[in-house]
Amino acid sequence: MNTKLSLVGAAIAASLLLTNPAPAEARIPFFSGEQEIPSLAPMLEQTTPAVVHISVAGSREVRQRLPEAFRYFFGQRGPNEYREERPFKGLGSGVIISADNGYIVTNNHVIQDADDIEVRLKDGRTFKAKKLGADPESDIALLQIEAKNLTEVKLANSDKTRVGDYAIAIGNPFGLEQTVTSGIISALGRGGLGIEGFEDFIQTDAAINSGNSGGALVNLRGELIGINTAILGPNGGNIGIGFAIPANMMKNLVDQIIEHGEIRRGSLGIRGQDVTSDLTEAMHLNVSRGAFVNEVLPDSAASEAGLESGDVIISMNDNKINSFMELRAKVATLGAGREAKLGILRDGKERTVTVKLRELATGQVAASQVHPMLEGAEMSNAEGGGVKIDIVENNSPAAQIGLLADDVIVGVNRQRIANLAELRKMLENRDGVAALNIRRGNTNLYVLIR
User: CA-based diameter of the chain, in Å?
Assistant: First the structure.
């Protein structure tokens, strides 16, 4: 989007709003008696000091497959890849959410593998940052600096964000510090993109580019509605489709890191799928969106709350649920031990149940973090070795390649694996087809992924 045109559009819309006052949440509240043109400048002067520049340095393991001719000299049991540690540097953005405690939120991918994290404020001060915790599957990390006279950003209730609301992105694209772009909220509840393990993105057309990651997406009052995370565009360029992690989701995760020093993932204990037109017709449903419950797992939070197979979950904490992926992300990031109010449709009647979330099984991860074709499955280390498939969502990529719940992956390309870490390493940067050796009951089979 052309930023200049976007700002002009915002100004024109502001003029209309000032002429015909609308509800308070939609009004642009920045109009100076000395100015005849509405401006975002007063809000930005208060907000931009809370957005910081982050630079990182460290080293990462790089793997390269060895040519067959080179491997020959090592014999049949020689290595098939070359590994070395290589230094790296990176840039990103962050947002100060607590001035008193020096807490800064950013994306996990900004600081991942970093040995040195440096934060530079708008006033030019520079500090070394300490990493307090992170959640790679939702791409949130919490840093801390020891500094005085910090400016924090106020958090909005991102569940109240609406499509069409104005949005302003603040960050450091391509190292250009304190860059501001504007647009609108284009969509809500975006998931299934394969960007993160748990996705419930706010979509915006405010320009987001490389280096904006971890920066602020704010509303017209300067309140934080999201953490800018990713873009969809050729060659990493902006085409007006950017994604931000909702502020409420971020806060849930940060609260867990502060309280427990780690993420304690919430679990509902159901298997399900999106509500589709075919499902609506077959089950005579009177809704077109939601999360359909195929199965309630025994001894789970859902069974304790009285959920039943055939229920359709249409809301969580009074916010609409449009898909099973959206429900999954909200439950997982809300945290174990938290209560959630679920609106459900059963036998054509709406009712409300309150559920206390259990903790996701230790070591359980979203399989999309291991390989894109495993999306829709959740896995954990199996007793006796291998990787157990705990859940497979209907119509997901994992289901389409033939995986079933309770399958155990025991090897890749005839090489045995002992746990999730080994499976991840075997599939990382692998070209071509990989054959997963699956133990299903008393039988063994292979599932191919590309």
Answer: 81
Say if pTM beats, i.e. exceeds, 0.90: no
pLDDT of residue 364: 55
Long-range Cβ contacts of 342-345 (<8 Å, 24+ apart): 342/305, 342/307, 342/313, 342/315, 342/316, 343/313, 343/314, 343/315, 343/316, 343/318, 344/307, 344/311, 344/312, 344/313, 344/314, 345/285, 345/286, 345/287, 345/290, 345/311, 345/312, 345/314
Cα 386 to Cα 374: distance, rounded to the nearest angstrom:
16
In the numeric block, which tokens belong to residue 434? 């990989």
Q: Could you report the per-residue pLDDT of 196-246, keeping only the tens digit for each? A: 778 899 999 999 988 899 999 999 999 999 999 988 877 667 788 999 999
Query: Quick one: tokens of 212?
Result: 């904006």
CA distance to 20, 70, 303, 378, 380, per residue, from 404 (Å): 58, 40, 21, 11, 14
pLDDT tens digits, 259-282: 888 888 889 999 888 898 888 888
Distance of CA 266 to the CA centre of its chain: 15
pLDDT digits (tens, 9 = 90+) for 376-406: 888 877 877 888 888 888 878 888 888 998 8
Residue 141 · residue 125 · CB < 8 Å? no
Tokens describing residue 154: 């106020």
CA 425 to chain centre: 22
Query: Alpha-carbon distance 383 to 214, whole Å?
Result: 38
pLDDT for 6 equals: 41
Helix (H, G, I), strand (E, B) or coil at 291: strand
Q: Which of 438, 355, 435, 429 is nearest to 392 (CA)?
A: 438
**pLDDT value for 172:** 92
Query: Sign of the CA dihedral 402, 403, 408, 413?
Result: positive
Residues carrying an active site annotation:
109, 139, 213
Residue spans of the chain under pLDDT 50: 1-27, 71, 74, 76-77
Alpha-carbon distance of 359 to 269, in angstroms, equals 10
According to DSSP, residue 199 is labeled -
pLDDT at site 50:
96
Residue type, 402: G
* CA separation for the pair 354, 427 (Å, rounded): 40
86: which 2 tokens? Answer: 């290589």
